[in-house]
Design brief:
The chain has 464 residues and is of the alpha/beta class. It has four domains: 7-147, NusB-like (N-utilizing Substance Protein B Homolog, Chain A, Orthogonal Bundle); 148-181, no CATH class; 187-244, Sun protein, domain 3 (Alpha-Beta Plaits), CATH 3.30.70; 249-451, Rossmann fold (3-Layer(aba) Sandwich). It is 47% helix and 14% strand. The strands form two sheets. Strands 5, 6, 7, 8, 9, 10, 11, 12 and 13 form a nine-stranded mixed β-sheet that branches. Strands 2-3-1-4 form a four-stranded antiparallel β-sheet, with helices on one face. A hairpin with an 8-residue loop joins β11 and β12. The longest helix is centred in the last third of the chain and has 19 residues, at 360-378.
Length: 464
């Protein structure tokens, strides 16, 4: 208990924000902790883990509940609070292996706080969780197709398992990919060389009892090996000496390679990780125009740009899909880090697994193609566009690039050197895919495109 509130009640309130109201994981945790005035990072971490591990296993938890109800239509009739309460109970009984009696007692106390002294609700929770406790694996996993069995075993939608068969050659690699998506991701940070050098930051973090190591592939990247508290609680994080960022995300500005004195456009800039990284690479020289349409995200972008000391960034609140209607200048380089399904970041944002359906691909791909087309109108001759997503889906990546190159024959793909990842899907092998199970980082896609001085681009597969 903390402030008279149980961990389960806090977790339940956060689950309601995420699963019922569609709030992001980070914002939901922040909101509920602020509501109950909880500042202890240990309590926050324990609740965060309970929420995330419950969301990771949503489909198998629901399967246990579904199988334990008298009628199958009853599941749909459960109100969201009761459904999420039962999900927490099933997770703790089946995956934490707490006794059903203890879990039932804790959740009945939570139910009392929410529903009042409803003896009927308490009896229902008790009966269902007792039944879940006695449910065998055979009852859950028996008589299922291969895809359904993998879906429940590794906690992913069935459609997603089927989709992976088009990306990977064998079942072993699919399973390796799925397992990685259920692991807690490593914590990595980018040294902000606008304020401090790498060696000095390592020394300061060591004094704060963080154990860090340098990444051997990406400059200015440090891995947090061990710590007594989250890296977000370091005073040097508040001072902007580093930015919490994955290896995959850091690779994108290196591919764009912005130089001092250049004009660079960042069409989807918030929250500012890549924007401030580019400012760092440009040594605060030149100009970066950072566009973002969301007011909430613009505020976050402003905060990060200021904290990181990126003085060459000009933030513009605007929807980049319509940017050429108002912007007259031509840029040396344009970054299109496009909004996407985020299927490469499932290990840190598990809600993504259950949020998107195949029909959503086409909504995102429409936005992505529009943004890339706008970038084409803003680039100087000889200039570079980098297109990236944190998605592994073909429809958001190679399909976008292939369509773009067909409609814009004066652009071509350019080779680039990223020391991790694999070539893009055929025939766009000059693009790059980064898979979590291969690179131990977020899933990403990166393409580098150049506007030629001549329109006589060779008619080939886009790899010239």
């Amino acid at each position: 208990m903390v402030n008279g509130i149980s961990r389960e009640l806090l977790a339940l309130e956060i689950l309601e924000e995420i699963l019922t109201r569609g709030v992001s994981e980070r914002e939901a945790v922040k909101k509920i902790m602020k509501k109950h005035k909880i500042t202890d990072w240990k309590i926050r971490g324990a609740v965060h883990a309970l929420v995330f591990e419950t969301i990771r296993r949503l489909n198998v938890l629901d399967k246990y509940i579904f199988n334990s109800l008298r009628t199958k239509s009853s599941f749909k009739k459960l109100d969201s609070f009761l459904k999420n309460l039962l999900r927490l109970g099933v997770y703790e009984i089946k995956f934490v292996e707490k006794s059903a009696a203890l879990v039932t007692n804790e959740l009945n106390n939570v139910a009392h706080d929410i529903f009042g002294s409803s003896n009927k609700k308490a009896k229902f929770i008790n009966a269902l969780l007792r039944k879940v406790e006695k449910t065998s694996d055979q009852e859950i996993f028996g008589d299922l197709s291969l895809f359904e069995r993998l879906s429940l075993k590794y906690q992913y939608p069935t459609w997603y398992i089927k989709y992976l068969t088009y990306l990977f050659n064998n079942q072993e690699e699919i399973i390796a990919f799925l397992k990685k998506g259920n692991e807690i991701p490593i914590t990595s940070i980018r040294v902000n060389t606008l304020k401090i050098n790498k060696d000095d930051l390592i020394q300061l973090l060591t004094e704060e009892q963080y154990i860090v190591r340098e990444d051997q592939q990406v400059p200015d990247l440090l891995i947090i090996e061990k710590s007594s508290k989250p890296i977000t609680w370091s005073k040097f994080h508040r001072q902007g000496y580093f930015y919490i960022q994955s290896k995959s995300s850091m690779s994108v500005p290196y591919v764009l390679d912005p130089r001092p004195h250049e004009i660079v456009l960042d069409l989807c800039a918030a929250p500012g990780g890549k924007t401030t990284h580019m400012a760092q690479m440009m040594q605060n020289s030149g100009r970066i125009f950072a566009f973002e349409r969301s007011l909430r995200r613009v505020k976050e972008l402003h905060s990060n740009v200021k904290k990181m000391g990126a003085t060459n960034v000009e933030i513009v609140r605007f929807d980049s899909r319509y940017i050429t209607n108002t912007l007259q200048l031509k840029a040396d380089k344009v970054l299109v880090d496009a909004p996407c399904t985020g299927t490469g970041t499932i290990h840190s944002r598990p809600t993504i697994k259950w949020k998107f359906k195949p029909r959503d691909f086409y909504l995102f791909s429409s936005i992505q193609f529009t943004l890339l087309s706008e970038a084409a109108r803003l680039i100087k001759t000889g200039g570079i566009i980098v297109y990236s997503t944190c998605s592994i889906l073909y429809e958001e990546n190679e399909q976008i690039i292939g369509r773009f190159l067909k409609l814009h024959p004066n652009f071509r793909l350019v080779s680039f050197d990223v020391p991790h990842g694999t070539p893009g899907l055929y025939p766009l092998s000059r693009t790059r895919r980064i898979y979590p199970h291969v690179s131990n980082s977020e899933g990403f896609f990166i393409a580098k495109i150049k506007l030629d001085e001549t329109k006589n681009r060779r008619k080939d597969d886009g790899n010239s």
